[in-house]
Design brief:
This protein is α/β, with parallel strands linked by helices and about 725 residues long. About 40% of the residues lie in helices and about 10% in strands. The protein is built from 23 helices and 17 strands. The longest helix has 24 residues. It is globular, with a radius of gyration of 28 Å. It starts with 5 loop residues before the first helix and ends in a 29-residue tail after the last helix. About 45% of the residues are buried. The N terminus is likely disordered.
């Protein structure tokens, strides 16, 4: 990059790491200064994205969502000035189409930290000579914000102060920032009193505001509870004073060599098909078409988004973006949120797509990033994404895959991100969970270690008389492989004490209600609830959070205990079916090159070890109590992805049937009957589950995703 490229390559590889101690700050600054002096030859436009992105990444401990150390903005000012002076000499000149995509990680309502992240990211973008710094949807407030802003409209007013303060700091580099905007002339106590908007700021002013027209209301989205759809897709003035001048201008929403059109998230998504077919909506119905009809001189389209990750989402985006780009003949810039908010996990993957529909740039997935791109020149870097292999998958329709081959890597990354973010944003760093030696607790523990570190995950083994020696062996092997601390707390005595009191209760109630139900699982469930109580006590003692270990298959069937294995602050695998949990175990072992998850855990039949099967004298196996997991998981797949009623499934051939021709029609019907019966009575449990990380493509059991009346019933017939 400086002739033979060796010195700039060294610069990219050897930027000093962020100083964690105050006494290391001066030496760190000197190392940066030395690097600038030694790499002072011009960088070509093709090389600039790699250089700028590497510098931005090195500064992430300062501008990112979780700053490290005690380095103040004042302390950073000289370094940023030096960076700007260096970039002005070696980088492509400002005003030549370079944009920085700010893949930020805001927290709803935390205005100060959100503004700090935006402001610091902007300073990096300005120092690196970007024409504009583009932030995600609602980045100043945080998305999703739920009903908080409706209940506390003063929060929106304070956010307007923050946006105005950010606008006043802008110079030649523009700032495009998402915010919740009060609808002019509407009481904050009215229904849906806000717009979902972006402010376009430059030279200390607001050039204008663009508002979201299309509000999604499906799956995890309920935007119309809070926001009002904008009447049009045009640039509106800033109505909110606060010492910020409004200088609405066009052509161009901000100063640069190109003219930019701005939209917000679903304003790009609502129109199908996701390909380059002619538009199905008129320009007055389609926000993109409406914008281009009003401003035909637009050169580049920008979308500020907060789009959660789901199975197959990257491939859907590819079809959407490529179709839009080719349909309108414009390059696209898509800036997405990263991190997680409760159940919602955002993969980022902010992108630039050329007018011909090709990927020009993409930010890293499941992490904050500042990414330098030039959509007018088609320059940027495409970072890998764990779902890349889905981009070549035929789109003939969803097909159930027992091994979940295309989605395991993304699932691991998404759950890891979800756990990490939930703990950080809740102010916790430690997790406790029950280790049974079974599959679900083993996978949950392994993912928690990836997110929090092995020193912060405690496994508690709580055996009873039913617990097999193999379970203890498997638990110990897992803990050793993960390197986590463990406790062994036998609970037989506590369980027996509860059972004794249960017998006393039965004796007193016999005269009022008669004999207890022959199908009662009360004695079995005492084990699960006792374990959960111990985990809660330990968590409270050590400022930790307990993790629930139930998987999606068992939640569907009610094969999970309220206040037992369902108990916790977070359910990491609550949207992961059992066959995929097995696939995650194999993936983790392949990645590590060793048996992180003991092979016996991945080969033995799952079972809760809560009761003895009188026929075998051994603990009841889960599949004996339910049905084969591959069949059960395909039922769930058909319900969620194909929207089939179980009565429609009777005539369809399942993958399990092809592999097991001994399954006759009567057995299949019995399994479908069992599914319907169990699911109907399990629905109430979904409402009392902790937050469930949303992973799958459709219909997670998270309370804010799929709404199912607990008294709803339907039959297979």
């Amino acid at each position: 990059m400086t002739g033979d490229g060796s010195r700039m390559s060294s610069f990219l590889l050897n930027l000093p790491t962020w100083p964690t101690a105050p006494d290391a700050w001066q030496a760190w600054q000197q190392q940066w200064g030395k690097a600038f002096k030694e790499n002072s030859a011009p960088v070509t436009p093709a090389q600039w994205p790699a250089v700028a992105n590497h510098i931005s990444q090195a500064l992430e401990p300062w501008w990112g969502p979780y700053p490290q150390g005690d380095i103040t903005d004042d302390a950073m000012t000289p370094l940023l000035a030096e960076l700007a002076a260096w970039a002005s000499q070696v980088a492509p000149k400002q005003g030549t189409g370079w944009l920085m995509m700010g893949q930020l990680n805001p927290t709803p309502g935390r205005l100060e930290t959100n503004s700090q992240q935006i402001g610091r990211g902007y300073q990096v973008a300005a120092a690196l000579q970007a024409d504009a710094f583009i932030c995600p949807e609602l980045s100043a407030m945080g998305y999703p914000v739920g009903d908080v802003v409706v209940r506390f409209p003063a929060l929106v007013e304070a956010q307007l102060d923050a946006v105005a303060a950010l606008a006043k700091t802008t110079g030649n580099t523009a700032l495009v920032v998402g915010f919740a905007e009060p609808v002019p002339g509407i009481s904050p106590y009215a229904r849906s009193p806000f717009y979902n908007a972006v402010a376009i700021c430059q030279q200390g002013t607001v050039h204008g505001v663009v508002r979201k027209r299309m509000l999604p209301n499906y799956n995890e989205y309920s935007d119309s509870r809070v926001f009002r759809p904008a009447p049009d897709a045009f640039i509106a003035p800033w109505h909110h004073g606060r010492g910020v001048a409004n200088t609405t201008l066009w052509p161009g929403t901000f100063v640069g060599p190109a003219r930019y059109g701005v939209a917000i998230c679903y304003d790009w998504w609502h129109q199908k098909p996701y390909d380059d077919a002619p538009p199905t909506a008129s320009p007055t119905q389609c926000p993109v078409g409406q914008w281009l009809a009003a401003y035909p001189e637009t050169d580049v389209l920008i979308n500020c988004s907060a789009s959660p990750s789901r199975a197959g989402k990257l491939a859907t985006r590819q079809r959407l973006f490529a179709g839009l780009a080719k349909r309108y003949g414009k390059p696209l810039v898509y800036v997405n949120q990263s991190g997680a908010i409760d159940e919602h996990i955002f993969d980022g993957a902010s992108s630039v797509i050329s007018a011909s529909g090709d990927w020009v740039a993409r930010s890293q997935a499941f992490a904050p990033a500042l990414t330098m791109v030039n959509p007018t020149l088609g320059l940027g870097h495409v970072a890998p994404h764990p779902e890349d292999n889905t981009l070549t998958t035929p789109t003939t329709g969803p097909v159930f895959d027992t091994h979940h081959t295309d989605d395991v890597a993304r699932t691991v990354d998404a759950i890891t991100c979800g756990i990490k973010e939930y703990f950080k944003k809740s102010g916790f760093s430690r997790a406790v969970l029950g280790l049974s030696g079974g599959l679900d607790s083993s996978i949950t523990a392994a993912l928690a270690v990836r997110a929090l570190g092995k020193a912060n995950v405690l496994g508690v083994f709580m055996p009873t008389a039913i617990t097999s020696p193999q379970s203890q062996t498997d638990m110990a092997a897992l803990a050793a492989g993960l390197g986590i601390p463990t406790l062994t707390l036998p609970i037989g005595g506590a369980v027996q004490a509860c059972v004794d009191q249960q017998i006393v209760a039965q004796q007193h109630l016999n005269e009022h209600w008669g004999a207890p139900s022959a199908h009662s699982y009360a004695a079995d469930n005492v084990q699960a609830t006792t374990r959960a109580s111990l985990l809660r006590m330990i968590a409270n003692d050590y400022h930790a959070l307990p993790l629930a270990t139930s998987d999606k298959s068992e939640l569907y069937m009610g094969y999970a205990t309220v206040n037992g294995d369902m108990s916790g602050a977070l359910a990491p695998i609550g949207d992961v079916v059992k066959t995929k949990v097995f696939a995650i175990g194999h993936w983790l072992n392949n990645e590590a090159g060793r048996a992180v998850i003991p092979l016996s855990v991945l080969t033995k039949p799952p079972g809760a070890e809560l009761a003895i099967d009188p026929k075998t004298g051994q603990p009841v196996l889960a599949e004996d109590a339910l049905m084969p997991y591959p069949f059960l998981d395909e039922v769930i797949f058909r319900v969620e992805r194909l929207h089939q009623h179980p009565s429609h499934m009777v005539g369809n051939t399942f993958a399990y049937e092809r592999d097991h021709p001994e399954v006759d029609a009567a057995v299949k019907q019995a399994w479908l009957d069992e599914f319907v019966s169990r699911m109907a009575f399990a629905a109430f449990k979904w409402w009392v589950a902790p937050p469930v990380l949303i992973i799958d493509a459709e219909g997670s059991l998270a309370a804010r995703d799929y709404q199912h009346p607990t008294v709803a019933r339907f039959s297979v017939q």
